[in-house]
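Re: [ENG-882] Designed sequences occasionally contain unexpected residues at chain ends

Forwarding the minimal case from QA. Structure tokens:
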């Protein structure tokens, strides 16, 4: 009897302590995010609701990567939707711990004749539901923990994907500028070819080649412009902007990415920080508690107890009753099998996620090292070599040893090397952002090559006359 009283006491406490306020959960989500990425502070709904002044303040200056990520968390309604889903889990937790409502019964009868009217009153309580309330609340509590981990991870990923979108827009803006510079060079070559052809110093075939080169360069500019506009719009969506707020500008150019000084222990750090693993473990705990719940349901009969009173004339007759449903046929066999299988599946998925986190760290490091070294090679070796070629070609042109077309060809080679450097730097920046994210607790896959790249092959040009 004392055990039953302890169960009922536990159910009463669970019902009394469950709060319908989700503010505490949201603060925990925000603290989790900001402890892993301090620049990703964001406002909570309600009292902390962000004002438009903060958005205006960020947009008043050219956007930086940190500013873009913060703006997305302030202004993108996906954050609100994610936090609202935490409220759904809080509501389910509260509901799971509530005690069943008692049922009242009232009946009045008039037998007629000399017999007085009869009045029956009764109250009945579902005892089984009261005993099972702590178990159900435990399952919902672990599920609520999992939702908090999931929400924090989703918000971290939004900040990361915004940063990546910023880098892509920045790189494609640079490439558009390079393509416009190349087009100007092709147009200058064509204007020179026209003058030479007019005085009879250039064959028509060479002139036709120059014209074809100009038109190819125009197409490259159009492709680069389309890619830049697409990237700009993708970043605008991440920022949650519309209307007049879409006229933002970017600060600076894509900066070189430094390679990590030490890579030992990064896999262990990523595993310790992983929000996905924390979520899976919480869900596995919920499934484990669900197994316990179904086992209890299997042997616990349906119990209900009640009191009733009957008034016959001036007398009251009081009594009580207990209803017992014997667990003979339905012993929660199906629910028990389902919960056990769910627990086994979640344990296996936890192991899969551990492998995924480790693999993400290695793949990201490989990509970061490869792209970083390629970008460094373009920046430190190939671009200076191309510029030296251009300088020497200009000197020889001044000495009337080469034609102007060779000068322009050398200039276009510099442009193509610069375009390739931007591509490699963008890959490195995305890999560095992905590494930062996985070490913060979210192993998002690398999305390389998602933005169309300008070709790095220079259009064919005439060698001169």
């Amino acid at each position: 009897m004392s055990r039953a009283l302890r169960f009922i006491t536990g159910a009463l406490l669970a019902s009394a302590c469950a709060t319908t306020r989700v503010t505490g959960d949201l603060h925990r989500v925000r603290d989790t995010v900001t402890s892993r990425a301090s620049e990703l502070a964001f406002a909570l709904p309600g009292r902390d609701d962000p004002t438009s002044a903060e958005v205006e303040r960020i947009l008043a200056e050219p956007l930086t990567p940190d500013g873009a990520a913060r703006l997305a968390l302030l202004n993108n309604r996906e954050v609100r939707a994610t936090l609202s889903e935490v409220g759904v889990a809080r509501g389910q937790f509260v509901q799971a711990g509530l005690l069943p409502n008692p049922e009242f019964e009232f009946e009045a009868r008039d037998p007629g004749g000399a017999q007085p009217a009869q009045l029956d009153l009764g109250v009945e309580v579902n005892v089984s539901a009261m005993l099972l309330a702590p178990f159900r609340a435990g399952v919902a509590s672990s599920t609520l923990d999992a939702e908090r981990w999931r929400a924090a991870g989703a918000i971290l990923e939004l900040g990361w994907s915004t940063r990546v979108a910023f880098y892509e827009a920045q790189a494609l803006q640079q490439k558009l500028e390079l393509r416009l510079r190349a087009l100007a060079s092709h147009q200058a070559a064509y204007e020179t070819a026209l003058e030479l052809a007019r005085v009879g110093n250039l064959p028509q075939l060479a002139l036709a080649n120059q014209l074809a080169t100009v038109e190819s360069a125009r197409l490259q500019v159009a492709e680069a412009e389309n890619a830049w506009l697409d990237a700009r719009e993708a970043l605008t969506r991440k920022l949650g902007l519309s209307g007049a707020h879409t006229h933002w500008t970017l600060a600076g150019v894509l900066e070189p990415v430094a390679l990590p000084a030490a890579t030992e222990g990064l896999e262990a750090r990523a595993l310790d920080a992983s929000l996905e693993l924390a979520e899976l473990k919480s869900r596995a705990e919920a499934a484990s508690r669900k197994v316990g719940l179904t086992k209890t349901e299997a042997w616990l009969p349906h119990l209900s107890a009640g009191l009733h009173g009957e008034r016959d004339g001036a007398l009251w007759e009081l009594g009580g009753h207990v209803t017992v449903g014997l667990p003979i046929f339905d012993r929660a066999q199906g629910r028990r099998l389902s919960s056990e299988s769910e627990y086994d599946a979640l344990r296996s998925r936890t192991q899969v996620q551990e492998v995924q986190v480790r693999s993400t760290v290695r793949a990201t490091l490989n990509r970061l090292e490869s792209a970083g070294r390629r970008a460094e090679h373009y920046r430190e070796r190939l671009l200076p070599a191309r510029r030296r070629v251009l300088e020497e070609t200009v000197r020889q042109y001044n000495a009337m040893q080469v034609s102007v077309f060779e000068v322009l060809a050398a200039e276009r080679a510099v442009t193509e090397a610069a375009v390739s450097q931007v591509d490699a730097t963008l890959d490195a920046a995305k890999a560095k952002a992905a590494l930062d994210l996985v070490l913060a607790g979210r192993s998002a896959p690398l999305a390389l090559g998602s933005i169309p790249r300008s070709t790095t092959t220079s259009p064919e040009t005439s060698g001169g006359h």
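QA comment: On inspection the terminal residues look reasonable. Confidence is low (pLDDT under 50) at residues 448-465. Proposing we downgrade this to a documentation issue.
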